[in-house]
Design brief:
Number of strands: 7
Order of helices and strands: EHEEEHEEE
Low-confidence stretches: none
Structural class: alpha+beta
Radius of gyration: 22 Å
Shape: elongated
Number of helices: 2
Number of domains: 1
Oligomer: single chain
Mean pLDDT: 84
Length: 113
């Protein structure tokens, strides 16, 4: 039995996910687009993401399009209109590293003509 934590999509983004084009491959999701898992709500235990969907379907907080299920092993599945698909968190871009030491203020700049 797998344990899933639920990440709820922020409401203002639901229509973008619902009506967005279907793409193949792993979906990349941004953590800022999701509410953190509710620590007061127990995680869902189910064999598959679909079993978790059916277990929550008739509750006060069913899964909605765009919501994420995070398995105990850290894998993500996003609930889309067509079913569950693999997802991964978007990683922030790395800032480029400067090649040399930063210039000090002691150096004089060349005079302009």
């Amino acid at each position: 039995m797998q344990t899933y934590r639920i990440h709820r999509l922020r409401d203002h983004l639901r229509n973008q996910v619902r009506f967005g084009p279907h793409v193949s491959g792993t979906a990349t999701v941004k953590s800022r687009d999701y509410h953190p898992p509710d620590l007061e709500q127990d995680p869902v235990e189910a064999e598959t993401p679909y079993a978790a969907f059916f277990a929550l379907r008739d509750t006060a907080t069913p899964l909605e399009v765009g919501d994420l299920l995070e398995a105990g092993d850290g894998s993500l599945r996003i609930f889309k209109f067509v079913g569950f698909e693999e997802a991964q968190w978007a990683l922030p871009e790395q800032k480029p590293v400067m090649a040399g030491p930063p210039p000090s203020g002691d150096e004089q700049s060349p005079a302009l003509p």
